[in-house]
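4.2 Preliminary Data

To establish feasibility before requesting continued support, the project team ran the inverse folding procedure on a target of 312 residues. The structure was first converted into the token representation described in Section 3, and no sequence information of any kind was made available to the design step. The complete token record follows.
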């Protein structure tokens, strides 16, 4: 008991004096910086805000600080940021930038840097990852449209070099095939952006006049499609329905509110942080992959098919 009394008195005195642990000195003793690097592909994309919140919350609770960088899609810039983070002696990395075959993942493996991917996966499964079940998300979207009576369903796909674009396209095709159908048309966007969604939707509408519904690989593509509808004189959902993917903030506020597949982004971030802390604590721990279940959020951008006029 005497020992605990001494400890308590020391803690009380430290708090009164405003003492804070010296993390730099601690890092020198342990050879750990208590820093984690997070690379995002686009800080302006609101999808990544809740992911980042989940990562920073979980790591902060464990005493880690986070260095966040907007890495874009340029491999050279990502390489430079990777080297900068190594120079800062980060203990690990969370990557939301990975492509299906990713050089940066290769570098992290070569350098022995604990790494976890979030929202995207790479083909080799060489590091841990936390993703949404893209196939299940597209099944939910397809089943919803089929239940409404749609049979002529088109797809605005994401870039095929990203797991989200590739797996969502494959998931939609498999879901429709289970009902003896296939997409009446597919257009692949070059990036997950509103403008790419507009261009892809215009190309799709020019390709087919039969489609009564579109499944977009993410919400930004769907929002771009709204603009394409206006340019072609089409009303959503009276002339054509659309389903997005992600449930980004504010998609319930656009006109019409977007039916979309909801992903648990904050949980995704927290789970990625948890996997990373396991890796940082034990370099020999096997890489784990976590797949989170999505939900369909039905709003006003989908309705029964009415048939649509020839695009103007």
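Position-by-position output of the design step:
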């Amino acid at each position: 008991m005497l020992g605990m009394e001494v400890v308590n008195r020391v803690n009380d005195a430290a708090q009164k004096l405003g003492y804070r642990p010296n993390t730099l000195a601690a890092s020198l003793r342990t050879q750990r910086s208590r820093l984690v690097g997070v690379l995002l592909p686009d800080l302006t994309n609101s999808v990544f805000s809740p992911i980042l919140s989940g990562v920073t919350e979980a790591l902060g609770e464990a005493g880690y600080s986070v260095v966040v960088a907007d890495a874009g899609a340029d491999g050279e810039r990502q390489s430079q940021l990777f080297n900068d983070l190594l120079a800062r002696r980060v203990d690990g990395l969370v990557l939301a930038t990975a492509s299906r075959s990713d050089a940066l993942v290769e570098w992290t493996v070569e350098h022995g840097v604990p790494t976890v991917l979030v929202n995207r996966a790479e083909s080799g499964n060489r590091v841990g990852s936390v993703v949404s079940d893209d196939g299940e998300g597209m099944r939910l979207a397809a089943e919803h449209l089929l239940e409404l009576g749609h049979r002529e369903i088109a797809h605005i796909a994401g870039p095929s070099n990203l797991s989200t674009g590739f797996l969502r396209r494959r998931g939609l095709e498999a879901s429709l095939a289970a009902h003896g159908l296939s997409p009446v048309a597919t257009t692949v966007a070059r990036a997950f952006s509103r403008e790419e969604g507009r261009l892809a939707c215009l190309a799709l509408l020019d390709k087919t006049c039969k489609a009564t519904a579109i499944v977009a690989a993410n919400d930004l593509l769907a929002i771009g499609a709204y603009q394409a509808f206006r340019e072609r004189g089409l009303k959503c959902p009276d002339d054509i329905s659309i389903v997005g993917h992600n449930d980004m903030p504010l998609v319930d506020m656009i006109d019409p509110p977007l039916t979309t597949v909801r992903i648990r982004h904050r949980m995704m971030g927290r789970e990625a942080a948890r996997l990373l802390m396991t890796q940082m604590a034990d370099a020999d721990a096997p890489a784990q992959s976590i797949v989170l279940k999505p939900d369909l959020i039905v709003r006003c951008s989908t309705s029964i098919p009415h048939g649509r006029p020839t695009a103007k």
